[in-house]
Amino acid sequence: GVAYGVPFALAAIPFGYAVDRYNRKTLMSAALAAWSGATAISGAATGFWSMLAGRAAVGVAEAGGSPTGMSLLSDYFGTDKRATAIGIWYLSSGVGFALAFFVGGWVVETYGWRWAFVAAGIPGLLLAPILFLTVREPTRGQQDAPVEQKDAPLGQRLKDLLARPGIAYAIAAITCIATGIYGMSTWLASFLVDSHAFSLSRAGLIVAIAYGILGSIGGLLAGWGADRINGRRGGFDPALTARLSSVIPLLTAVAGLLAVSVAQPNAAIGFLMVAGLLSASYNGPVYAVIVTLAGPQLRGLAVSAVQMSANLIGVGLGAWLIGKVSDVVGGKDGVAWGIGTAMLFCIAGSALLYLASRSIKRPQRI
C-alpha cells in the first residue's frame, strides 16, 4: 500500500546513488537486516500509527535490495550469463509469493497475524550476518570493458543515465508492465470468486501457483533463453534482447484477456496459468539490457529508477485502476473488465520495449 510504496520510492534513488559509490555487500547486508527487523517488529504493532511506521521502515530498507543485488550480479557474471543470473535472482519474488500464501496462511490460522510478521522477519535477520561474512565484494566493472571513472552529483548522474539510448524507454516499459501484472495478480482471486464462483481459498491457491511457482519458472527460463540466443549470435546484443523481450508482455496481455473473457472456469484457469508463467519472464532479459547499457558506474541508479517508477506508478496504479473500472462497470463482471483494461498497459510496455530496441545503436555486441 501507500505506507510501503511511497517510502520505497523516496528512498530508491538515494540508495541507487549509494550503491554506485560504496561497498555493496555492506549496503545489502544492512538493508536486509533493516527490512527483516522492521517486518518482525511490525508484529508488535499496537495501532494504526505503529503499523504505518513499520511498513514505512520496510519500504525504505527494501529500496536497497534490487540495486545492490543487480550491481553485484553484473560484476559476478559477464554478459553471457547475466540474464540467467538475474532470472535466478527474481526467483525470490515468486518463491516469496508462494511461501506467503502456503506458509504465511498457516501461521496466521495457527498462531495469529502477529506471529506471521515475526516468522517473515526472522530468516532475513539470520541471513544478513551470513551474507556480510561470506559474500565477496567484487571489483566494480570487472566484467565490462574499461571505462573512464567519473564522479558526478546525483542530478548529473540521472541526466547521463536517461540520455543513454534505450534506458528511458526500458524504464517506461517496465512501469507499464508492472501496472498490468501487479494489478492483475492483486485482483485475480476476486475475479475467480465473482465470475466463476470459486471459494476464496481455491482462488488464492490458483493465484499462488500461477504467479508464485509458474512465474518463477518462467523468469528463469526466459533469462536462460536470452543468454543462449545471444551466445549463438556471438555476444550480448541489447537491441536484439529488448526486441525479443517485447513479445513477452504482449503474450501476457493476450493470455490475461483470454482468461477474463472465456466462460468455462477450466479454460480461464488454463489461460491464467499461461499469464502467470509469462508474468515475470521479462525480468531477466530486460534488466540485463538495462544494467549493461547503464555501465558499472550507473547500475545501482538505473535499477533504483526502475524500481521507483514501477512501485510508485505501476503497482499503485494497476490495483487502483482495476478497482475503479470494476466500480464503474459493476456486477459480477466488473473485475474482469478491470483486469482487461490493465492488460492494455502490458501491450503498451511491449511497444515501449520495441522502441527501446530501435533506439539502441546496432551493431552493438558486448
Keyword list:
366 residues; mainly alpha; Growth Hormone, Chain: A; 16 helices; globular
What does the model show?
By secondary structure, this protein is an all-alpha fold. It has one domain (2-135, 154-359): Growth Hormone, Chain: A (Up-down Bundle), CATH 1.20.1250.20. It is built from 16 helices and no strands. It has helices spanning 2-19, 24-41, 48-62, 65-76, 82-89, 91-111, 113-134, 154-163, 167-196, 200-232, 238-245, 247-259, 265-279, 283-294, 299-329, 334-359. α2 runs antiparallel to α7, α12 runs antiparallel to α13 and α15 (299-329) packs antiparallel against α16. The radius of gyration is 20 Å and the shape is globular. The chain starts with a helix and ends in a 7-residue tail after the last helix. The model has no long low-confidence stretch (mean pLDDT 91).
- Round the mean pLDDT to the nearest integer and report it: 91
Helix percent reads over 70%
Cα-based radius of gyration, to the nearest Å: 20 Å
Poorly predicted runs of 5 or more residues = none
Largest sheet: none
The arrangement of helices and strands along the chain is HHHHHHHHHHHHHHHH
Question: How many E-type strands?
Answer: 0
Brief summary:
The protein is mostly helical.
Ordered list of secondary-structure elements with their pairings:
Layout: H1 2-19, H2 24-41, H3 48-62, H4 65-76, H5 82-89, H6 91-111, H7 113-134, H8 154-163, H9 167-196, H10 200-232, H11 238-245, H12 247-259, H13 265-279, H14 283-294, H15 299-329, H16 334-359
Helix pairs in contact: 1-3, 1-15, 2-3, 2-4, 2-7, 4-5, 4-15, 5-10, 5-14, 6-7, 6-10, 9-10, 9-14, 9-15, 9-16, 10-13, 11-14, 11-16, 12-13, 12-16, 14-15, 15-16
